[in-house]
Write a structure and sequence with these properties.
Keywords: Glycosyltransferase, Golgi apparatus, Membrane, Signal-anchor, Transferase, Transmembrane, Transmembrane helix. It is a single-pass type II membrane protein. The longest helix is centred in the N-terminal third of the chain and has 28 residues, at about 30-60. By secondary structure, the protein is α/β, with parallel strands linked by helices. It has nine helices and 17 strands. It folds into two domains: about 5-95, no CATH class; about 105-350, Spore Coat Polysaccharide Biosynthesis Protein SpsA, Chain A (Alpha-Beta Complex), CATH 3.90.550. α4 (about 200-210) crosses α7. It has helices at about 30-60, 135-145, 170-185, 200-210, 230-245, 310-320, 325-340, 360-365, 385-395; strands at about 5-10, 15, 20, 25-30, 75-80, 85-95, 105, 125-130, 155-165, 185-190, 220-225, 225-230, 265-270, 300-305, 345, 350-355, 375-380.
Amino acid sequence: MANFGNVKQSPGYVKCSSHYDIPLGLDIQFDKWDFCFLILIILPRLYIYIENIDRDVFSSSNGWNDSTSSISSSSRYITVEVSGLGEKLLEIEDGPIVNPHNFNYKLNPGSMICSLESASQKPLILIYIHSDPSHDKRRLLIRETWGSPYNFKDFEIRTIFLCGITNNNTMLQEALELEYDRYRDIVQEDFIDTYRNLTYKGIMALKWISQNCMKALLILKADDDIFLNIFKLMSRLNTIMHDNGILKSNNNNINNNINKDINLFMCNVWDRMMVIRDPKSKWYVSEAEFPENYFGRYCSGSAYAYTTSMVPMMFRMSRHVPFFWVDDYYITGLLPSKMKIPVKYEEINRLYFLAPGLFLEKFSMNDGDGEESRLAIGHSHNINQFLAVWRMVLKKYANATMS
């Protein structure tokens, strides 16, 4: 067995005579047999240990498995490098869990939502929608309009609605369960569904996608009072994905046509949005909650799109970032800013018009050549206006394709 008696402290890594540096806080001199012992015995065990952490995290269909929460109470990195080649083999982080998201699913369609025929070569787009349990009419409207899986020929659309629970409203819960039994497109966890709990919905989305829909090319989030000209929006997103190398042209095999290493948000980008300090405002944030006067870069929560590659990292990071109720900033700004990977934001601000009082007027002009012709994302509280604009959209974009 290898002799580990010749050990001395080092500021940050282990020195190995065979040109291998291992930053574990010790300096150990190895001969060639010791090095073989390290490679054959120690490193495979470390690999299995890390694999088990990931498996524990995403295996449970009922929620996050907290078996890894006692590993460490302070952040650290474990890195194994081949110093001669500069190759990094492994990097993990664990730290104090301050936002465990200990909620259980009450309704969960599981991976069947994102299942595809084995022969399908169409890219998969997952849409998830923040919805109040009582908003059954809005959900039905979206299913029959821009959230329908039948709008496009060249890619697959899947839509889910995210809900929490209401306090002691048994009849509403029973109605939601009947709706779920019919459509199988509702995901519900047992947190209370309130405005200041919307961040829990965002984290639930990250958890559910990590467990059930990582095959999706793109994630599109919207609220249930948002109208999307889905054809115009997807045309723009498709162009952005090609421009950023996420989609490659002229390749019939979808598995070889996607670059999954690019982390990208496409949205109405807000930079240095001022924090509201007026206690009378719905969006009031106290200095105790958020001491800075401006938010960092993030996406408007009305609707935004992002690449699926970021989802597991964002979900893991959410356990180490304290809960903050401003959900669009927390999900699209704070979590990405904490990840040690490059994240890019593409502005599509010109596609948005979010004043509901002028929704019909602005989107009725969408077929012209003026500024309104650019609009794709609107805010509507009126079902009749919503349907009127959708009928106009269908006349123009019937049988739309992604190309």
